[in-house]
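ok so I'm stuck.
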Amino acid sequence: MPYPKYPLTGILAAIALLASSLAAAVPAIQNWRAGNGVPVYFIPARELPMVDAQILFNAGSIRDGEQAGLAKLTSALLEEGAGDWSADAIADRLDRVGARLSFSSRRDSASVALRVLVDPRYLQPAVETVARLLKEPSFAPDAVDRVRQQILTALRERAQSPGAIAQDAFYKALYGNHPYGSPPEGTPASLNAIDRAAIEAFHRRYYTAANAVVAIVGDLDRPAAERLAENLVGGLAKGEAAPPPPAPPAPPGQTLRIAHPSSQSHILIGQLGVKRADPDYYALFLGNHVLGGNGLVSQLSQEIREKRGLAYGAYSAFSPMQQAGPFLMNLQTRNDQVETALQVAQTTLRTFTDQGPDAKALEEARQNITGGFALDLAGNGKLAGALGSIAFYGLPLDYLQNYIGTMNGITLDAVKAAWQRRVQPDQLITVIVGGAPAAPASPDPAKPPAGS
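replied:
not stuck anymore, here's the structure
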């Protein structure tokens, strides 16, 4: 039996209607401060007897200073011991109540994420554990050495990855000596130079109430959420707020070629983008969905993959941070196709910046973004992640409710104007890693030379 066919416009309209109704159903964000001043953001979600909480600290790698990798090492050590608890004791405490706890460190922030049942038998021990990890991590010397070696091992693997090499080189070329240019994982030399005193000092400076925000989503009422926040972060020292990172200067365009024995070359092309609070971000994000943010149907993928078969895929993205994050195009191609792929990518970007997307493509992108909005928030974990970003970057409390309306209000002219203001196709930083043949195998001493 053949499937019925529906016009695309009808499908898009149905998606838009569904997205609008789901967006309207997003509960309002409640906001207050804990007793020690930590901002708390809360959305009640009564569907499941669970709670997701995120604590974000202004303690990312931009705070490393001259000790690259310090923020990541500190974050990774938080679950390795607290007070008289060992790492095994901490893991056992969490396992007994079925709690999930994770730590992460990025350029802007370090975060702690907890998921646990709201029943006090499970919630209270889990929260007590997190609070102690944040307040009094032990940073035992053996744990410091063990975690340092784990990161050094990851760095050795990273040094063999052409994609990672390209990313590191791009960030260094884009940001230079700005804190965003420092590798979050550090370097072997910088990691080996970090001692326990430096880790303790970093924790004391940045893991404080003045540098924290809390996001909570779960089956709680307001009083219970207030108690949860107090129990999580109420014991943090007040501390002093870290200053915002400086605005990075726009670097000149350049092309870096790094030889690597890989069959394909990794190509990154980009420039400075915008910070998360920039009003142009929405128009740039919408336009980028047409250029390279919508998988195989985006213009970059069509030009590079579908029409010419130069790569399996190509994409682009804005990655805003507290200050201007990168705008980046990314693709991989055979070594003998690098110049052609570069030319196509650069021409596609220049044409898009000069002319903008056509009205039909922009409308389809808008419907795709707004239609996927509900899926982006599906589940308490995703909603808590979005709430954490709102909290950390100081976005409006009505951000979620207004998101679809904001996207629907962006005109074609606004997209064109934002791209022409923010994107300079003649000032791109290009990094190409690849193009070198693999080193010949060493001769086997057990075999005689050929022809002997």
